[in-house]
């Protein structure tokens, strides 16, 4: 393999890694902050709640953004799931609503993929591409790849 290709792949890998880290950083911060105690949240993020109209134009204190909490605690999860059963009820209502929809879409997508694979129609390649690109709910991308590459 030529050196130029190795350098190009290395540069691309580096750029993509940096983009991945930047995209995953908010998720990591959110997850690790969910493991903090209420006192630590107040100490680190208290200034956010105290900003009001009278502080506009003045220098406000910075937020202490921490990747890892001082003390790991499941206290926040207890507040949501144990102390607030309404949240758990809403969560399970969402699950009960979404699961049949996903099952239906999967069944229809599988049947459509099977029919599309077994039926010979004019301009099948063009219509296949249109189906995969324009109607993502009709056939999943995995099904499109399997049909296209015969997997």
What is the radius of gyration computed over CA atoms, rounded to a whole number of angstroms? 25 Å
Question: What's the shape?
Answer: flat
By helix and strand content, what is the structural category? mainly alpha
Number of strands: 0
Largest sheet: none
Which regions have little confidence, pLDDT < 50, spanning 5+ residues?
none
Portion in helices: 55-70%
Distance between the termini: 29 Å
How are helices and strands ordered from N to C?
HHHHHH
Number of helices: 6
Assess the beta-strand content as a share of residues. under 5%
Kindly state the mean pLDDT as a whole number?
78
Write a structural description.
With 151 residues, this protein is mostly helical. Helix content is 69%, strand content 0%. The two termini are 29 Å apart.
In short:
Helices cover 69% and strands 0% of the residues. With 151 residues, the chain is mainly alpha-helical.
Topology:
Blueprint: H1 3-33, H2 38-49, H3 75-81, H4 85-118, H5 124-134, H6 141-149
Which properties best describe this structure?
151 residues, flat, mainly alpha, 0% strand
């Amino acid at each position: 393999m030529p050196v130029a290709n190795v350098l190009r792949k290395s540069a691309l890998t580096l750029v993509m890694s940096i983009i991945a880290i930047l995209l995953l950083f908010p998720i990591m911060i959110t997850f690790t902050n969910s493991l903090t105690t209420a006192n630590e949240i107040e100490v680190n993020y208290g200034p956010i709640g105290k900003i009001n109209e009278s502080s506009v134009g003045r220098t406000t204190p910075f937020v202490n953004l921490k990747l890892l909490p001082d003390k790991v605690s499941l206290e926040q999860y207890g507040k949501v799931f144990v102390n607030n059963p309404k949240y758990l009820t809403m969560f399970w209502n969402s699950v009960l609503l979404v699961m049949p929809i996903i099952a239906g879409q999967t069944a229809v997508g599988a049947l459509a993929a099977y029919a599309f694979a077994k039926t010979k129609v004019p301009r099948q390649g063009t219509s296949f591409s249109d189906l995969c690109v324009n109607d993502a709910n009709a056939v999943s991308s995995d099904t499109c790849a399997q049909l296209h590459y015969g997997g």
